[in-house]
From TrEMBL:
PROSITE patterns: HTH_ARAC_FAMILY_2 (PS01124). InterPro entries: Class_I_gatase-like, DJ-1/PfpI, Homeodomain-like_sf, HTH_AraC, INH-QAR. CDD domains: GATase1_AraC_1 (cd03137). It comes from Planomonospora venezuelensis. It comes from the Bacteria. This is Transcriptional regulator GlxA family with amidase domain. Keywords: Transcription, Transcription regulation. GO terms for molecular function: DNA-binding transcription factor activity; sequence-specific DNA binding. The lineage of its organism: Bacteria, Bacillati, Actinomycetota, Actinomycetes, Streptosporangiales.
Amino acid sequence: MSRVVFLLIPRVHLLDVAGPAQVFSTADDLGHPYTLTYVAEDGEAAAVQGLVLRAETAWPPLAPDDLIIVPGWRGPTRPASTATLRHLRDHHASGGTVAGVCAGADALGRAGLLDGRRCTTHHTVQDELARLHPRAEVVRDALYIEDDRIVTSAGVASGIDVALHLVTTRHGPRAAGQVARAMLVHLHRGGTAEQISPLFRWRSHADETVHRLQDLIETRFTERLPLSLLAEATSCSERTVTRLFSRATGLTPLAYQTALRLERAEHLLGTGATAEVAAREVGFEDARTLRRLRARAAAPAGR
């Protein structure tokens, strides 16, 4: 049986705790034994959402197979003590895994665990993490990063993704899939997925016609959607559809559909599907097309 220790910092975010805790609790229910322990320096931590969480003050003995997870909090807050940070360092030095959700990455940085390693955090505090820990390599716009048993994530719902990732690495994709299904999690996103989905990234405009077009594309993104069909659905000309869509989102309708297909394909690949299966499931002609588009999306801007 493995132990998962959650280090609770004052003003902790509830979902940063509850999401990963639910993953490992569900894994335990499904036959992968885990014991969950909560530690706080003062014996309790008030969540920023108003709930007070009670915890142990003494750290349990840990083995290399155990996990430490540091959920994020809303600052400013009192940093973890030197003794607490030593627990993080010692566990990693003994072969254990330490994970930080959202601002939890800062605690890992204060423990010296981010030096020389790739890491990430919520997109609103990435610059702050890079400023506080200049020896860390902060990766922008990633859901989670694992580097030498140091795991960091963007926070909020991505805490579920990183916990499912840890279940996958320990028990395989089938076990993680069982947990995700039990939790009714629609997607187990890969770590390199963008923090903001295409479903939301290009939805901040006020054009109702384009919103209707996006609804249609999102519902039928695996199908061939000729411009004539989109024009008929909105009673616009094809030229008007392209103009309105590009003005509101910066993309053509086809580029938007391709982005949705790639996001779904990344999920399928992350859960063990072959490129051929993923390509077929999302509507691409073949795996070669999927590989080409993935390579293009991963290429640095300007290349």
